[in-house]
Backbone:
């Protein structure tokens, strides 16, 4: 939707929070209408705060897809959880996404306790409603609203787009008045280099869901515009052990070839140009304890 004039415009930030695999990245992509955040069956794939930008009526809504909130065990886990709650505290509104099939499990209850401390308008979004009976949905809605005073409740299927538009319209009316913060045609503040690395990481997880620990990371080393309009991209996949490197390469290099083909197709779509993608796999031991890696991901390095 386009902006009709410069009067009465609204702009604000909405933090999407929830447990891992609640469907935040799927919802963000559905709202934006394009991929800005990676989606994977592997938990904790969103590591940094990814912003997706949506225009609804005269409002510009900047959605912040935060890392999933869970009980942290490692240093990287702690950094991700701190980032998620920081995003919620800084937003104009907070939308809690719950997997309606899981209901009020231990993770959801822990989030609700902490959510009471955040003094921002709160919206409850029950996701995956196509997979649960309506009577159970209504019961879950009552239980959750008894624990936290939500301003609004929405029932959606992020995967099918059901209920997403109504949710977006409500948020548009809640944004503070003010000028838009980004150009009208911009859908994310993530640079293409970062999005390209995230897409390759998604394809990595899709291919090696069980065999690969989520600590693996991807960095875009080179992004070169060529005279014929195509783009040459070099990326490095970093793992912590040589055994993981062998898994990614696969027999005769077949696994990394398949990952590269899938990633190249999707990167070509967001770059709107033919892409020549070259993937390398390197072992970087204990990268989860390296402050520089955290800075590159936009995370604060947890001490101790």
Residues:
């Amino acid at each position: 939707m386009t902006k009709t004039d410069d009067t009465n415009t609204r702009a604000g930030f909405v933090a999407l929070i929830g447990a891992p695999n609640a469907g935040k990245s799927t919802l963000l992509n559905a709202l934006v209408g394009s991929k800005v955040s990676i989606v994977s069956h592997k938990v904790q794939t969103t590591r940094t705060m990814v912003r997706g930008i949506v225009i609804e009526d005269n409002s510009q809504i900047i959605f912040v897809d935060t890392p999933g909130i869970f009980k942290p065990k490692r240093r990287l886990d702690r950094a991700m959880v701190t980032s998620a709650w920081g995003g919620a505290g800084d937003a104009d509104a907070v939308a809690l996404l719950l997997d309606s099939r899981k209901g009020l499990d231990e993770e959801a209850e822990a989030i609700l306790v902490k959510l009471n401390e955040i003094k921002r308008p709160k919206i409850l979004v029950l996701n995956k409603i196509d997979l649960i009976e309506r009577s159970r949905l209504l019961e879950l809605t009552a239980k959750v609203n008894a624990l936290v005073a939500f301003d609004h409740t929405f029932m959606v299927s992020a995967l099918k787009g059901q209920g997403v538009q109504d949710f977006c319209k409500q948020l548009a009316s809640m944004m503070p008045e003010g000028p838009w913060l980004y150009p009208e045609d911009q859908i994310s503040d993530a640079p293409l280099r970062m999005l390209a690395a995230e897409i390759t990481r998604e394809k990595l997880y899709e291919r090696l869901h069980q065999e690969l620990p989520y600590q693996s990371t991807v960095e875009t080393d080179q992004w070169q515009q060529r005279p014929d309009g195509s783009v040459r991209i070099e990326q490095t996949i970093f793992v912590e052990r040589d055994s993981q490197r062998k898994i990614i390469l696969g027999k005769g290099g077949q696994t990394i070839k398949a990952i590269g083909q899938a990633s190249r197709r999707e990167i070509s779509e967001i770059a709107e140009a033919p892409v020549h993608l070259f993937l390398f796999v390197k072992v970087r031991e204990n990268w989860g304890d390296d402050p520089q890696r955290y800075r590159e991901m936009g995370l604060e390095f947890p001490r101790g």
